[in-house]
Amino acid sequence: MNVFTHFRGVIDERLNELATNGDLPVDIDLKNVSVEPPRDASHGDIATNAALVLSKQAKRKPRDIAEMLKPKLEMVDAIEMVEIAGPGFINMRLSAGFWQEQIRSILASGTDFGNSDTGADTPINVEYVSANPTGPMHVGHVRGAVFGDALANLLDKAGFKVTKEYVINDAGSQIDVLAKSAYLRYREAFGEDIGKIPEGLYPGDYMIPVGERLKDKYGDKFLNADEAEWLSIIKLDAVDAMMDMIKDDLKALGIEHDVFFSEKTLHESGRIDEAIDVLRERGHIYEGVLEPPKGKLPDDWEEREQTLFRSTDFGDDVDRALKKSNGDYTYFGADIAYHYDKYQRGFKDMINVWGADHQGYIKRVQSAIKALSGDGSLDVKVCQLVHLLRDGEPVKMSKRAGTFITLREVVDEVGRDVTRFIMLTRKNDAPLDFDFSKVMEQSKDNPVFYVQYAHARICSVLNRAKDTFANIDTADGSLQNADLSRLVSDGELMMIKQCCAWPRMVEAAAEAHEPHRIAFFLYDLASEFHAFWNKGNDNPSLRFIIDGDIEVTKARLALIRSVALVIASGLAILGVEPLKEMR
RNA sequence: GGUCCCGUAGCUCAGUCGGAUAGAGCACCAGAUUCCUAAUCUGGGGGCCGGUGGUUCGAAUCCACCCGGGAUCACCA
Known about the structure:
Blueprint: H1 3-20, E1 35-36, E2 46-48, H2 50-58, H3 62-74, E3 79-85, E4 89-94, H4 96-109, E5 123-127, H5 139-157, E6 161-168, H6 173-189, H7 208-218, H8 227-252, E7 259-262, H9 263-269, H10 271-281, E8 285-289, E9 305-309, E10 320-321, H11 331-344, E11 349-355, H12 362-373, E12 377-383, E13 386-390, E14 393-394, H13 407-414, H14 416-423, E15 432-435, H15 447-468, H16 476-479, H17 490-500, H18 502-512, H19 516-538, H20 550-574
Parallel strand pairs: 5-6, 5-11, 6-7, 11-12, 13-15
Antiparallel strand pairs: 1-2, 2-4, 3-4, 8-9, 9-10, 13-14
Helix pairs in contact: 1-3, 2-3, 4-17, 4-20, 5-13, 5-18, 6-7, 6-8, 10-11, 11-12, 13-14, 15-19, 15-20, 17-19, 17-20, 18-19, 19-20
The structure holds one RNA strand.
């Protein structure tokens, strides 16, 4: 249960009563009323701005409305105290009993705690990674991959029906290059000395096994054949080989897509013509000449007539070309068909995760979706660069020279969990430093460790309880029966409240499409817990395991088990395994 | 020149559909281990939230215009 949503409902009811009684206008609009935790805990547990928001509509002073609402709220069982503060905020304190009961429901829900139905099973498509199938994934892909995956998990938890999608760009000229590179390695597999890989082909060693694979599959069939004979066939094999490699890389990060969509199929099936015809019928396509870009002209600029999409009608800056000079569709042309296809598959909500270099591409795709669908919407999440460091020094990489750092190298060195968590410790649109030395540090400077450590500590306490009480049952089902009214200290109630904020956090993060909020929340929760733990150092009566008092012990175990469940539930969104011990 | 992103403590960054006295970590200073993992915790100093106007009960948050940093800019994908 989301505590705040629950009381939002309660407050709405009482406001409607006031409207029925004639104290407020009958047609009063409650949509701006919010119920949230006050920033300052001394103001109580929940606060509402209802009186302030409704003041104008009701043509009454905020304090008057607050005074009318106050007695009605005081009658609610769980509400212990109601106070009007400042310009008209209504602060409420909830009873300890109410909070204690929440532990029971957290234990009953397990790691499903925080699941929400705000998504209402709405289909939503999250497209991420979509690295070109021309080589292994490199470090530049990692952030988008992790971000997209965590966002998809988050939306799933919030009740959306999520499809994780990868579009394979298997149609462009880079695939010809790939096939030629593979063919060279194929000849090499027969013992031919191919010398230095010619400029313009992919030089990486990862192409060698592809050559072997072709040799095994086709024997010497293509050895003396014309390019026209082998090109289209080897393209397929080469792309397959690249995708196998990429899927392996993704697996190392714990990522598995539901759908791999082939761009090539759009070209072959005439779907691009179809989508563009739709646009043409609606009058959004014309043959014309684009203005040269303002500012510095590209050296090889020439005026030419092109098939253009009038994206400026939908908020773009200039109209966009759909066909290349050789008559083929541009990537944008194919992309229009791709997004139209997604829409026709039932996705009105689409999210794409792109690198920072694609920012300028956003408006045109959104324009196309508007022009084609009317009610479809695309949110593009742009991930800024990751600065790789080692001991504070930049790690050089050069994609051109083939010496780029691969995703695999990063994961092999620091592990999947660390890679994933650290990538989510910044907003997607802020650059991120990734220091190989720092992320492996076992200290509170390192948020992964800090959160994991809290979880491990809890598991450790649950185990140790058996040393003190031989017969104690620490299973969730048993802890649910603990006498939770024994949880009365400030620290204990704080922990409960923090856990109860979890569902609200999930909903807010999902709505904003911001999985990093989960990482920050977990850090805060871990911090609460570590503080609580240390109180037992100063005051033994605040320890979790109290020798001779099994009831208090069980109640406290129920509490910290709830904390562990929230941490595990959050880590699951991030795709990180909660650790039971860290020795 | 256009577009997009960023600008919050010395440093790295959070900041909830606009909410009350703007938060955390690092660094700095002072403390806490016969004790469930000190791999942790407690306390302290430190801010014209880039600037100027506007919107309103109320702005770090929304709008306009500036300043500074980054990315990107006809047929590549």
